[in-house]
Design brief:
Oligomer: single chain
Shape: globular
Radius of gyration: 16 Å
Order of helices and strands: HHEEEEEHEHEEEE
Largest sheet: 6 strands, mixed
Strand content: 35-45%
Helix content: 25-40%
Distance between the termini: 15 Å
Strand order of the largest sheet: 1-2-3-4-5-6
Structural class: alpha+beta
Length: 179
């Protein structure tokens, strides 16, 4: 996370907790998620943050303004694709239904995904990637999905950063190693 002892980090954590904290048990609407992401990420990205509502179950959240190279797409409330430095991270509640043609070349999160926990996972990963650039990726097959139509993988992403040395960050089967 950003400057673990810094004021900015504490502010971001407070905003994230307020925006993504306790969610009601009922199902969420995509507009509610858009607002939660906007509240959590606007202190970090400022005017570069844009939310484009495209329909009942589709929205794009642009993090880097007009550049549009760092963004994510909400497909309903329980499927997110995060794009950073030409890489795509897939978070999908229905992971078992994805096949190799859906995931080829992508980074697929193998942890539990639901509409209540997904926003916090995505925001934390965004904050980990924010000031970095892609420096390489290694994949290792761990087995097959239950359907047998795709491989489960572990990923190691090398992230180049100008910040002081950061400890590696792990999110289930995804490891970010900073250089």
């Amino acid at each position: 996370m950003l400057l673990k002892s810094g004021k900015l980090c504490r502010t971001i954590n407070a905003v994230q907790t307020a925006a993504l904290g306790t969610l009601e048990v009922r199902g969420l609407e995509i507009a509610e998620l858009e607002a939660r992401y906007e509240v959590a990420l606007s202190p970090v990205f400022g005017s570069g943050l844009r939310v484009l509502h495209k329909g009942e179950d589709l929205a794009h959240v642009i993090l880097d303004g007009e550049e549009e190279a760092f963004y994510f797409t909400l497909y309903g409330t329980d499927h997110v694709r995060l794009y950073w430095c030409g890489e795509c991270f897939i978070f999908c509640r229905y992971r078992e239904e994805l096949v190799s043609s859906d995931t080829f070349g992508e980074i697929v999160f193998e942890g539990a995904v639901d509409e209540h926990t997904l926003p916090a996972l995505v925001v934390e990963l965004i904050l980990q990637l924010k000031d970095g650039t892609f420096a390489g990726k290694e994949e290792r097959i761990q087995g097959k999905t239950f359907s047998g139509w795709d491989d489960r993988r572990d990923y190691v992403l090398r992230v180049r950063t100008n910040r002081p040395a950061k400890s590696p960050y792990r999110l289930a089967n995804i490891l970010l190693a900073y250089q």
